[in-house]
Every structure is written in C-alpha cells, then in structure tokens.
Specification:
This protein is α/β, with parallel strands linked by helices. The protein has 3 domains: about 150 residues, NAD(P)-binding Rossmann-like Domain (Rossmann fold, 3-Layer(aba) Sandwich), CATH 3.40.50; about 180 residues, no CATH class; about 70 residues, Rna Polymerase Sigma Factor, Chain: A (Orthogonal Bundle), CATH 1.10.1740.10. The strands form 2 sheets. The protein has an 8-stranded mixed beta sheet with strand order 4-5-3-2-1-6-7-8, sandwiched between helices. Strand 11 and strand 12 form a beta hairpin. The protein is globular, with a radius of gyration of 21 Å. It starts with 5 loop residues before the first strand and ends with a helix. The chain binds manganese (III) ion (MN3). The site of manganese (III) ion has 4 residues, from helix 7.
Length: about 400
C-alpha cells in the first residue's frame, strides 16, 4: 500500500497558532505535506516561511502588501505560487487536493474559508474562537450536512476531546444526546488572569498595560485582556456547549493557576479524568493533526507537579464570565452580540478611552439593545456583526463620551 501524505493548508500561518502548526507539520513530514499558508500583511514572515517550508501556495490577504510582494518577488518563489485575498483563501480551503485546513486566522475573515472547507468535507482544525462563538449554530448546521470533521485546538477543548476519546467514547459533534447520556459534567480550567487576587474595589484602576500581562500563556493583547476579565473563559463555555452538546449546568470552569490541568471530565461512575500537560500549543495542535492517534514527540521537558491548586471562580469579580454563561444558554445571535461588543470595548480600553470596569457594563447594555434573532447565512452574520459594532460605538459615545 502506498502511504499518501495528508495535505495541510494553514490559514493564518504568521500568527502564534499558525507558527506552531508549521513547526509540528514539518516535524511530522512523514505524515503531512504543507499545501498552503496565508497571511494578512506580515509578508516578511510569510516570505521566510515560504523559503523554509516550501508550500505549494501562499496567500496574501492585504491588497497593498500583495502588490508590493509581487513587485519584489514575482508571483512564484521556487515551487510556491502566490495567491491573493479571499479568492486565494477559497482555493486553499476547498481545493480537492487538500485534506486538512487549520483555521488560525483571527476574526471573521476566517468564516468564509471555514465554511468552504466544511462544505468540501475537509478535516477542519479550528483555532478561531470568535467564529465558533458568533457563528457556531450556522457552522454546526453546515457541518451536519457534510462529511467534514471539526477539531478544536483551544487547549481546554482539545483536552476534553482527548479525555473523551481516551475513555472509549467517540467524538460526536453532531449528536445532540450522546454526551448527555455518557457524561456527568465537564470542567475547563482558567488561570485566573493577573487580577484574581486584586480586590474588586481596585478593578476600576486597572490600566491596559496591566491587563495585557498574562501569567502563564504567551498571547496577544486582546486575548490577554479577555483572560483578565474571564471573558475568554466565558467564550470557551460557549464553545464547549457547541462542541459537546451538554446542558449548561454540566459545563463548568474552575480556576487552576498553574495552567497544567486543562480540562476534566466526570463520568457516571464518579470517575473524574483530567488532562495535564505543560502549557504548549504544539500539543493540542499535533493531537488535532494526527487525531485520534498520538504521534508527535514533544521536546522532553520534565513535568513539574508541585502545588497544583483549584478554586471556584469568584463570580462577583468577573461579570464578563457571567454574561457569557447567560449567552451560552440563550444561543441564537447572542454569542455574536457578546463577541462584537466585547471586541469593541476591549479595543477602547486598550487605547485608554474607557476604564476596565466599563467593559462588562457596555456589553450588558448592548445585549439588551440588540434584537435576539437567528442568522442562517454568512451574509446575515457579517451584517449583524457590523450592526452590533456600530451600536456599541454609539453607546460608548453617548455614555462615556469616547469615540
Ligand atoms: Mn483556551
């Protein structure tokens, strides 16, 4: 039998998950072949990646950067053909040669290629949280009509997947009752962020430079703020509800400051199985790539067990987490509203236009103002998202005088 290498497209290869994915794919070169990579505007790194990993295609989304790149190098570097924009993304996500699409583009730009990849029955490895939160129901409905597979690389959800598979259960994203009839509850962990020990009366004095420092994971500014408000954990509750179809009261989060236990599953017999590893994204990425096998050899680092602690989340400190749980229950477009209002609020906070404690207040008010409906296609999702962002900015201008 001839063993055929699986062809992988990495959307967003210059971001942190993208970079880790390329490292894993090149380490597993006896299993995978890099089909394509893409960047928004970091063409400097893209060029480096082209030379190093030699994909068949490389896509540049930003038009000016694409033009500039063509002027410098032409439309082909050795065996790599340079493609442009949405058309290029469409090609590398849905071409019949592609087996696996890693969706690591930040934001809504990822929605169309993910939907293309699902419709063409790819294995989709999803690193993009916001499209699961904002368009999860639509994504699940096209997934149900396809033979595609959706695998999460968010460390907690990937850990849940690993526990479930290791326990002899299957991964059934589309089955509404499967986990309800097999699992008591699932728990994802949260580091607690930088303000877990700060008195809540001090929260109003938190500045953006404090909020972007995450204790255990190395991440971008926006997600670091989301971790500090626990919105990130809230978004992950929504993500978990979508992927594992359990009632909300069976989906928990707990503070575990060391980020070494990533998730726990309690089964009917009272057994709780936990997933532990050093915080290294290459572990969940490699598991998703070789799913359901475990093939990747991690750089051997000794796992340090000392002082693993677990605490309940102090809800009164983290209203964003509470809001997200309500949204997980409400469903429909409430995830979209939460996501958009949060992104705008965090953006304003990062540029010091509003204070830290305004963030949950703004989101809550936007959730009250915008109509809850269902969006069934990409067009209405994008329109709804734009609308919510405008409403959020208007509200911030009215109430906080910022623009
Ligand atoms: Mn996570």
């Amino acid at each position: 039998m001839v063993f055929v290498l699986k062809k992988v497209s990495v959307l967003g290869s210059t971001g942190s998950v993208g970079k880790s994915t390329l490292e894993v794919v090149s380490k597993l070169s006896d299993k995978f072949n890099l089909y394509a990579i893409s960047c928004n505007e970091n063409t400097l790194l893209l060029h480096e990646q082209i030379t190093k990993y030699k994909p068949r295609f490389a896509v540049i989304i930003d038009h000016a950067k694409y033009k500039e790149f063509l002027d410098d190098y032409g439309d082909r570097i050795d065996s790599t053909k340079i493609l442009f924009g949405e058309e290029g993304l469409h090609q590398i996500s849905s071409h019949e040669d592609v087996d696996i699409v890693v969706a690591a583009i930040v934001g809504f730009q990822c929605l169309k290629p993910v939907s293309d990849a699902i419709s063409t029955n790819k294995t989709v490895i999803i690193a993009n949280k916001e499209i699961l939160v904002a368009a999860g129901e639509m994504i699940m409905s096209i997934l149900n009509k396809s033979d595609a597979r959706l695998l999460p690389v968010d460390s907690e959800h990937n850990a849940l997947l690993q526990i479930i598979l290791s326990s002899g259960l299957e991964y059934k994203v589309n089955d509404m009752k499967y986990y309800e009839s097999n699992i008591n509850n699932i728990t994802i962990t949260a580091s607690g962020g930088p303000f877990i020990d700060l008195d809540v009366s001090e929260f109003k004095n938190i500045k953006s430079k404090h909020a972007i420092k995450h204790p255990t994971w190395d991440m971008g500014e926006k997600i670091s703020v989301d971790s500090s408000t626990m919105m990130n954990k809230g978004l992950e509750i929504i993500e978990a509800k979508l992927l594992f179809n359990l009632n909300l009261e069976k989906i928990n989060a707990i503070i575990h400051r060391q980020s070494k236990v990533h998730a726990l599953v309690e089964f009917f017999d009272g057994t709780i199985i936990a997933h532990m590893s050093e915080p290294d994204m290459k572990i969940p990425i490699s598991y998703a790539l070789t799913f359901p096998q475990r093939v990747y050899k991690s750089e051997s680092r000794k796992f340090i067990f000392d002082n693993l602690t677990f605490e309940d989340i102090p809800m009164s400190k983290f209203p964003c987490y509470k809001l997200a749980r309500t949204v997980a229950e409400t469903g429909k477009n409430s995830g979209l509203i939460l996501n958009a209002a949060n992104e705008i609020s965090v953006e304003y906070f990062l540029s010091d236009k509003i204070i830290y404690t305004d963030i949950p207040n703004i989101i809550e008010e936007v959730l009250d103002r915008v109509e809850i409906t269902s969006n069934s296609d990409i067009g209405s999702i994008l329109d709804n998202d734009k609308e919510v962002r405008i409403i959020t900015k208007k509200l911030i201008k009215e109430k906080y005088g910022a623009s």
